[in-house]
């Protein structure tokens, strides 16, 4: 069935900004399961309210406002022992993400090159780690190595990717 | 700080973030991380960048592992990712996934704009004055020229303003206090209509408002949108090219765009501290676009210059300055802009004249900001100085060519640089100075005098700058003035490398 114009436009915008909204949610929640769950809720809410969206305006900013409200509501219902959840944290992080949005987008774009520069073993480890439901322990089981060794290896690889994308985007920042 | 390479102190932060991500963090570590992130802006940035990295890896790898998925691209269809699977499925099913209650939700959503319009109309009528008595007063004026409509009174301190009167400011600054308590600093080339004890309309220009509790609900209407205070400090600007901006420095505001025949439903947003909105209009004054941006308190004069009397023309010069030791200043290849007090300036616009009394507390410091000198070490008082441009912090490299008055054979030439450079990296301040004077001096020639000045940068606080200097000749062997060329570069990131130049007849004595 052909999509109606608003549907097609929504899909286009959601596709374009989905990744950054997901990153925003993971930053606010610091928990991948929560981010996944809220992400779907945000998508549905945006679609329900899409008639309020004014074409040509900042879809990402609108989506972020909706996402932030969802995170706040979600936190009232559920609290984890392993997430950062004070209101101060949420406000401060929200401000930082908005402020750093251009550099975060640039780092996202730089990641592909940095990832391709990894040794094959490191790539493999990262790919295993980010499969749905995977954990350092499950990766350790697959590879017959200790959990501690995998944990440390992942930490080093993440740090290396982090340094690489920072370096790659350094020249794009204002002086 | 070199952002590509984190200092060692952040090694522990990286460890904690990794532990958080892998869910091995202890409650003590979690509390430690949370406090660290809340208190340290750089830590927040690092945390956000790591989360961005984790999210991007999840996104990328799950996209690739999806059966039949296309190669990973940023703009690939949403429905191909597991995370987006739900929505993808929804779209395949058209809109039938919407729950039954959505129909009622949509009815409510359609009704909301009408409610907002009614509320806005109520607010505006509620702010209309009951009579024609004064509803606001000009309480400060700074180097200003302008007019007050329908009035024989000049634009000066003490002028009372009735509802409907418009202040047109051609130059300088004025501060207007509204009867209900809101205070507004209006910058040059602005037009503000006073509409009531707690309401105004800005048709062009820039203002910063400070609103006490008694005046919550203070309104600034613009051609593009209406800004209503919800307990805050905020700035509003209306540009000649049909752009309006609202910036929140503290608290919250509500921004409502104008309804038009094409778009009867206004955009309403509640902006909080640090947030801003830019609204663009078409030639027909219809809303063309809205974007949320980061608030920039630096773009507004939020505090009346400290140390200046509340009178007009305090900067007027009479006669030759007795302390003039700088004969000419040529600014080259810097940045363009439009800021108070100098107004529009380009890459080669020369600085405003410095205060004839030389460096001392209360004198204006920059050409493009109304910041003033707070305190000056006694040894530096009276030094002739250059009112550099704060906006040049956005320049990657620019030049100041300075010629000195030749009635003395030698003078003590100084470069003042921000102390944050030294705090971030000990020893780097000397390096920055050496770079700035590298055209005519060797590294280490300009030495730290041990003296400093403190700038008053409005609500943003105090800023200290250390003076590095050297005795230099004013003229060459033929008696011609020597041109000293200073090169300010963009190191380090953080926009703190804008130098200031000053001259004393002799090296400062302890």
Structure explained in plain terms:
The complex is a heterodimer of chains A (175) and B (510). With 175 residues, chain A is an all-alpha fold. Chain A has 8 helices and no strands. Chain A is globular. The model of chain A has no long low-confidence stretch (mean pLDDT 83). By secondary structure, chain B is of the alpha+beta class. Chain B folds into 3 domains: 8-65; 125-299, Jelly Rolls; 326-504, no CATH class. Helices cover 19% and strands 35% of the residues of chain B. Chain B has helices at residues 11-21, 27-39, 41-65, 85-92, 101-126, 420-424, 428-436, and strands at residues 134-148, 160-162, 166-178, 183-187, 190-196, 199-210, 219-221, 225-239, 243-257, 268-272, 275-281, 287-294, 326-332, 337-339, 343-345, 372-376, 384-385, 397-404, 410-418, 447-456, 462-473, 483-489, 500-504. Chain B starts with 10 loop residues before the first helix and ends in a 6-residue tail after the last strand.
What keyword list fits this structure?
A: about 180 residues, mainly alpha, Rna Polymerase Sigma Factor, Chain: A, Arc Repressor Mutant, subunit A, 2 domains, B: about 500 residues, alpha+beta, Jelly Rolls, 12-stranded mixed β-sheet, 6-stranded antiparallel β-sheet, 7 helices, 23 strands, about 35% strand, disordered N terminus
In short:
With 175 residues, chain A is mainly alpha-helical. Chain A has helices at 5-29, 32-48, 59-77, 87-99, 101-116, 120-129, 136-143, 147-169.
Helix content of chain A: over 70%
Distance between the termini of chain B: 33 Å
| Secondary structural class of chain B | alpha+beta
Could you spell the SSE succession of chain B in H and E letters?
A: HHHHHEEEEEEEEEEEEEEEEEEEHHEEEE
Q: Please work out how many helical segments of chain B DSSP would assign.
A: 7
Label the overall shape of chain A. Answer: globular
| DSSP strand content of chain A | under 5%
Average pLDDT rating of chain A:
83
Query: Please, how many domains of chain A?
Result: 2
**Biggest interface, CB < 8 A:** A-B, 79 and 86 residues
């Amino acid at each position: 069935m052909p999509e109606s114009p608003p549907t097609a436009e929504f899909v286009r915008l959601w596709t374009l900004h989905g990744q950054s909204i997901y990153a925003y949610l993971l930053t606010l929640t610091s928990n991948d399961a929560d981010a996944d769950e809220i992400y779907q809720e945000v998508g549905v809410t945006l679609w329900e309210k899409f008639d309020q969206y004014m074409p040509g305006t900042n879809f990402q900013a609108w989506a972020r406002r909706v996402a932030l409200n969802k995170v706040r509501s979600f936190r009232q219902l559920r609290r984890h022992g392993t997430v950062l959840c004070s209101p101060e944290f949420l406000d401060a992080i929200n401000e930082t993400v908005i402020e750093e949005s251009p550099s975060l987008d640039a780092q996202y774009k730089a990641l592909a090159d940095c990832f391709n520069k990894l040794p094959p073993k490191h790539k493999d480890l990262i790919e295993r780690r980010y499969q749905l439901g995977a954990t350092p322990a499950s990766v350790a089981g697959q590879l017959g190595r200790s959990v501690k060794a995998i944990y440390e290896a992942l930490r080093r690889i993440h740090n290396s990717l982090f340094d690489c994308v920072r370096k790659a985007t350094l020249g794009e920042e204002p002086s | 700080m070199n952002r590509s390479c984190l200092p060692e102190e952040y090694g522990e932060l990286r460890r904690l973030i990794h532990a958080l991500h892998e869910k091995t963090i202890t409650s003590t570590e979690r509390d430690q991380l949370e406090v660290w992130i809340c208190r340290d802006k750089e830590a927040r940035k690092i945390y956000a960048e790591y989360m961005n990295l984790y999210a991007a890896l999840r996104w990328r790898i799950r996209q690739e592992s999806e059966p039949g998925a296309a190669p990973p691209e940023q703009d690939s269809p949403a429905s191909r990712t597991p995370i987006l699977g739900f929505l993808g499925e929804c779209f395949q099913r058209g809109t039938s996934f919407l729950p039954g209650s959505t129909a009622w939700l949509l009815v409510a959503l359609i009704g909301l704009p009408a409610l907002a319009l009614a509320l806005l109309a109520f607010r505006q009528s509620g702010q209309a004055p009951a009579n024609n008595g004064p509803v606001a007063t000009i309480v400060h004026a700074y180097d200003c020229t302008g007019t007050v409509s329908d009035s024989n009174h000049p634009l000066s301190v003490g002028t009372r303003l009735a509802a409907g009167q418009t202040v047109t400011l051609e130059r300088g600054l004025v501060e207007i206090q509204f009867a209900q308590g809101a205070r507004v600093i209006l910058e040059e080339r602005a037009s503000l209509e006073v509409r009531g004890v707690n309401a105004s309309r800005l048709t062009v220009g820039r203002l910063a408002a400070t609103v006490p509790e008694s005046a919550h609900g203070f309104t600034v209407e613009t051609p593009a949108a209406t800004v209503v205070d919800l307990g805050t400090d905020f700035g509003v600007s209306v540009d000649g090219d049909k752009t309006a901006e609202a910036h929140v420095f503290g608290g919250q505001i509500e921004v409502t765009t104008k309804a038009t025949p094409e778009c009867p439903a206004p955009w309403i947003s509640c902006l909080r501290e640090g947030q801003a909105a830019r609204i663009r209009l078409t030639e027909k004054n219809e809303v063309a676009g809205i974007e949320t941006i980061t608030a920039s308190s630096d773009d507004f004069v939020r505090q009346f210059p400290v140390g200046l009397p509340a009178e007009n023309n305090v900067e007027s010069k009479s006669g030759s300055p007795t302390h003039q030791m700088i004969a000419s200043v040529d600014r080259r290849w810097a940045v363009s802009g439009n800021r108070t007090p100098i107004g529009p300036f380009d890459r080669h616009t020369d600085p405003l004249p410095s205060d004839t009394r030389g460096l001392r507390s209360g004198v204006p410091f920059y050409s493009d900001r109304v910041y003033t000198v707070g305190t000056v070490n006694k040894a530096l008082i009276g030094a002739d100085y250059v009112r550099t441009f704060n906006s040049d912090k956005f320049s990657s490299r620019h030049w100041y060519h300075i010629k000195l008055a030749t009635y003395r054979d030698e003078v003590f030439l100084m470069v003042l640089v921000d102390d944050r450079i030294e705090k971030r990296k000990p020893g780097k301040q000397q390096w920055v100075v050496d770079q700035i004077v590298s055209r005519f001096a060797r590294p280490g020639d300009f030495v730290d005098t041990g003296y400093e000045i403190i700038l008053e940068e409005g609500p943003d606080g105090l800023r200290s700058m250390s003076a590095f200097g050297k005795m230099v000749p004013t003229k060459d062997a033929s008696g011609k003035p020597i041109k000293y060329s200073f090169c300010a570069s963009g190191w380090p990131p953080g926009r703190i490398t804008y130098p200031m130049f000053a001259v004393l007849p002799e090296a400062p004595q302890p």
